[in-house]
């Protein structure tokens, strides 16, 4: 698992992203979700998703009041599946931030948030967007356990 923390200064928003998550890390992620006041219902849903052991899964939870989010991207079966999950979860994240600020999803401002989030996440995500790079990364992550 790789953890990325970043801050969107213009939006005063803190984000933690977990990449290549498997069932080994469920407790750590659930604790972090609790720390940002994730509801019991959402915690149970997240636990079920994370413990499923399925590939190509993800989740995003945001606390709009405290302006923070947790994004989880599970282990994916290919670079294209990673891109799909990445886009999906990034979409939820941008929608949450936009919702907190009442930003029209058809506006330029919405797209600027999406672009900034994408740029921040790219620093880590690029390692999963190439199948050869992913194989090396999988070995690296597995050896860290």
What this model shows, in words?
- The chain is of the alpha+beta class and 145 residues long.
- Helix content is 52%, strand content 20%.
- The protein has helices at 26-35, 40-51, 79-100, 108-125, 131-144, and strands spanning 2-8, 13-21, 58-63, 68-74.
- The protein has a four-stranded mixed sheet with strand order 1-2-4-3, with helices on both faces.
- Strand 1 (2-8) and strand 2 (13-21) form a beta hairpin.
- It is globular, with a radius of gyration of 15 Å.
- It starts with a strand and ends with a helix.
- The relative contact order is 0.16.
- The mean pLDDT is 94.
Topology diagram in text:
Layout: E1 2-8, E2 13-21, H1 26-35, H2 40-51, E3 58-63, E4 68-74, H3 79-100, H4 108-125, H5 131-144
Helix pairs in contact: 1-2, 3-4
In short:
With 145 residues, the chain is α+β, with helices and mostly antiparallel strands. The chain has helices at residues 26-35, 40-51, 79-100, 108-125, 131-144, and strands at residues 2-8, 13-21, 58-63, 68-74. Helix content is 52%, strand content 20%.
CA radius of gyration: 15 Å
Q: Give the assembly state of these chains.
A: single chain
The total of beta strands comes to 4
Order of helices and strands: EEHHEEHHH
Largest sheet properties = 4 strands, mixed
Give the % helix. 40-55%
Number of helices: 5
Give start-end ranges of low-pLDDT stretches. Answer: none
Based on the model shown, name its key terms.
single chain, 145 residues, alpha+beta, 4-stranded mixed β-sheet, 4 strands, globular
